[in-house]
Each structure stands twice: as structure tokens, then as C-alpha cells.
Amino acid sequence: MDAHPDAPPVVVTDTLKNALRIVALDQRARARGVRLGQSLSDARALAPDLDCHPADDAADRALLLTIAAWCERYTPLVALDAASGRDHGLFMDLTGCAHLLGGEAALVADLEARLGAQGFHVRLCLADTPGAAWAMARYGQARIIPEGAHGEAVLPLSLSGLRLEPALVVSLGRVGLKTIGCIAALPRAPLAARFGARLMQRLDQALGREAEAISPLMPVAELSTERRFAEPIARQEDISQVIAALSAGIIEPLERRGLGLRRCRVRLFRVDGHVSALEVQTARPLRDARMIARLFAERIAGLHDDLDMGFGFDLIRLDVAHADPFEGAQAEMMAGNAGGHGHDALVDRLGARLGLERVQRFVLADTHIPERSFGREPVARLASHPGARRAASGAAALALLPDLPTPDAIITRPLILFDRPELMQTIAEVPDGPPLRFRWRGASYEVARSEGPERIACEWWRDGRGARTRDYFRVEDRQGYRFWLFRHGLYGRETSEPAWYMHGLFA
Predict the structure, then answer these.
(1) What's the domain count of the chain?
(2) Residues 6+ apart with CB under 8 A from 289
(3) What is the pLDDT of residues 191-200, one digit of tens each?
(4) CA distances from 58 to 20, 36, 63 (A)
(5) Could you report the per-residue pLDDT of 105-147, keeping only the tens digit for each?
(6) Using CA atoms, how far apart are residues 250 and 264, in angstroms rounded to an integer?
């Protein structure tokens, strides 16, 4: 504000009670007598040069989420203040984190200074309970409430500090109850009977009589390690070296827990508040620092846009987002026998560059309909329970390869199977004889020999009761070409005019 003394006062307006009213304002507007909730016409009478902007809840929330991601440099437990309505804010659980920055006072000062440098006006308070911190930040002056003193500290504050509905605050004011201290010593039963149990719940939360949990935006990592810098770094080589060092530092905690990482992320906190995130996922539990660093190098190389360094990063953190039990394997006596590890490394590298969801394998499906008998799934899909995790990691050696057919299937199933059977014209014996000649894709074929039928019943639970049976034939024409075709529907029982379809070609 001081850098632009001639700038007009700025306000944000929205439609409330059928009128445009002020929902946010800057210090210049406040100095001219404009206040929150005032109608725009009254505000313009006080300050004709008001710079008005319509409220944009979506943009406000996006900005708040950006600030929340940046605040994770102090603690992983950052939550949105969902109960505050338009007066948005954040909750941060700093339990066990303050000593990392030299204590509570140093942490609060650092947080306030950094957000102020980004252009934000901040009101904050550190207290034992979320309710007390919320009330003091908005209606008090203290920035830190000493441990155990939050009960007395909030008593002089307005009842609005209890996060109550405005109508309830007005009702309490009509009977002379203006501050939190006015109701703290009153009998609870009459207050709850007249004003509702919500009033007593908010009072208990603020005073610490009732526990209040916050819902963090991001799940807490199983393991985490970070590196802070006195001077920001902005070179690709430096970032790669830091990621390699962090990867090496996470191995020993993984070994103590008997785990190997499956998904981990690196977050880079830029000095101007921007946070970049890189994530990699592995095909099997991994406990190799060099491989982890290499995966992140592949991930950075595969970015569509270069990593925006800005003015540099002053904090880099590596989080283990998901880990599975690590099953050690006996080393081979013969050199060069790497088993499936070379394949897993290839899958991990492809996944880091392209995304593991795009590295898929063929799997058998529980159906006997040929075109439905297989599907695809990501190679490194994370399982939801330990038994499934072991099965998934063991099956990863067949990734990118279809399930091998049995010898009988090699003979009876074609090399080329069409995605959808193709309709054709056929002359065949009724009711269930093989085709004698057929016309397909504009060409006519005369059958020299045939084998079948192989009957495949319909899946009535999927296609309905009206679905038809298929009779498959393996036929060879006079030129030696072999086809796999079927009659759709039993003659006289399911239809009077069965249709014929081409479904595949043999070698």
C-alpha cells in the first residue's frame, strides 16, 4: 500500500440480502469509513473513487489451496477452515514441528514474514486448541498464547470468535451476552436449551474441554526427509544432487521397518511461494537410493515443460507416500543373472517418464467369450492389502506380456483375433452344419475342410436372457487360408435365421 499512495481504495462486493455489499476491503477503504457488510451505495458516498471487484469464490479457494500447499513446509497437517464461510483461513497442526525452526516464536515470525513478502496481509495465532487460535487470530491481538493459558485468553473476545452463525450471535447479544466470558461461567443446561447444543460444543472446543480434529488436505507420508538451504538453489545439477542425497537418507529408515517404497514424491518449495511436486511409482518395493534418484531424473526429463526454477528453491522434501513389505532375495552365485530386476527397472524408468498408468500388461478375464477373455491393467498397480501386494509384486515379472496360452489353446485359437466379430454371408447346412462357402470383405471363399463346432454359451447375466449361443468352426479354404468363424444363434431354437461372423485368422 505504501508503494502506491495514490491508488484508490479497493473493495470486494457480493450480493447479500438483495443488495451489493462489501465482503472484503483494504486499509485505505477502512480509513475512509467503509466497513464490512455495508452496501455499495453507502460505501461510494464515503469514497466515490472505490475500486470495486466482484467476489470470486472459485479463485479465492484456488489461491487458498496454493497457500496451503506452501504452508506444508512447516507441517504436513494443513487443513482448510471450512467453518468460517467467506472469512477463509487455514489450520496448521504444529505439534512437534516448532523446534525445527528454533521454537514457536521463530516459526510464527518466519511464517508471517514469508507470507508478507509474497504480498499477503496475515493474521495468525498459535494456541493449544484450533478454536482458541481461530478466535484470537480474528478478534484478538496475541500472536502466541502460552501453553495452558488459552482458556483465559479467549474470555474477553467476541462471541463471533466461537465460529457461530451470525443469527445466533445476534440472539445472544439481545440478552446481553457479548463475549465468550459472558457464557463461560453460566449454567450449561439453560443455555443449551435456549440456544442449542452447538453453542456449548463450540465453547468446549475453544476452551479445550472437547477435542477437535482437523482434516489435512494431503495424507501424511509414512516417511519424510528434507533439506533446507540458507541460499536458494536454482540449478538442475544441484537439485539432482539433493534428491540423490535425500534418497540415500531414506533407505536406513525403510530398512528398520522392513519396507520398500512403492510411491514417493519430491516437493520443491520456491521462495516466492510456488510449490512443484514430482512423483514416481515403482513396479515392486524398492530400496535402492541410486535407482530412486534415477527415477526422479527420468521424471524431470519427461516433463512437458521445464521445471520452473523462479528465484530458486529454499526447501526440498522427499516423502514416501506408499511402502510395501520388502522381501529380500538370495543373491545368485553366477554373475550376470539378474532375474526379473532388470525388467522391473525398465518398467520403473518407463513409468517415471510416461506415467506408470500407461505401462500396462495383459491379464486374463473371468469369461469364456473370446473378445472379453483378456484385459489390460497397469503393471505397478498398488494393492490394498499385504497379501495382494506380494501377489502383485510377484506377477510383475510378466508385465508387458500376455498370459501364456496352453498348448491346446495354441491350436484352437487364432493368431489374430478381431476386436469385434465381422458379419459375413455364408452358405451352410442346417441346422448345425459347417459352412460350405462364404463371402467376407468383398471376396468369396470356398471351404475345403472344416472342424467344429465348438459351442460357447451366452453370458445371460451380462447380455440378458435374449443373448444367443455361438458355434465356432475352424475352416480352411482351397488356397490354404484358415479362418475362425461362428454361427450366432441355434437354428430353430433361438432364431430362424442365424447370422455368421468372422472372428479371427490362423497363421
Answers:
(1) 4
(2) 244, 247, 248, 250, 251
(3) 999 999 999 9
(4) 19, 21, 9
(5) 999 999 999 998 888 888 999 999 999 999 999 899 999 999 9
(6) 11
- Is there a contact between 50 and 65 (Cβ–Cβ < 8 Å)? no
Asked if 422 and 469 sit in the same domain, the reply is yes
Contact between 166 and 158 (Cβ < 8 Å): no
Q: Is the dihedral of CA 485, 488, 492, 496 positive or negative?
A: negative
Q: Which of 474, 480, 367 is nearest to 414 (CA)?
A: 474
What are 327's three cell numbers? 522381501
C-alpha to C-alpha distance for 227 and 233, rounded to whole angstroms: 11
Q: Do 130 and 43 fall into the same domain? A: no
DSSP assignment string, 399-444: TTSPPPPPHHHHHHS-SEEEEEEEEEEEEE-TTTPPEEEEEETTEE
**Is residue 1 situated within a structural domain?**
no
Distance CA 351, CA 335 (A): 28
Q: Which structural domain, as residue segments, surrounds residue 294?
A: 221-330+339-403
Domain presence at residue 326 = yes
- Determine the Cα–Cα distance for residues 102 and 92; give it in Å rounded to an integer: 17
Task: Assess contact for 281 and 295: CB atoms under 8 A.
Answer: no
* CATH code at position 255: 3.30.1490.100
> Residue ranges of the alpha helices (H) in 178-235?
180-184, 188-195, 197-207
Same domain, residue pair 32 and 83: no
Rounded Cα–Cα distance for residues 468 and 487 (Å):
10
Do 102 and 49 share a domain, yes or no?
no
Instruction: Note if the pTM is more than 0.70.
Output: no
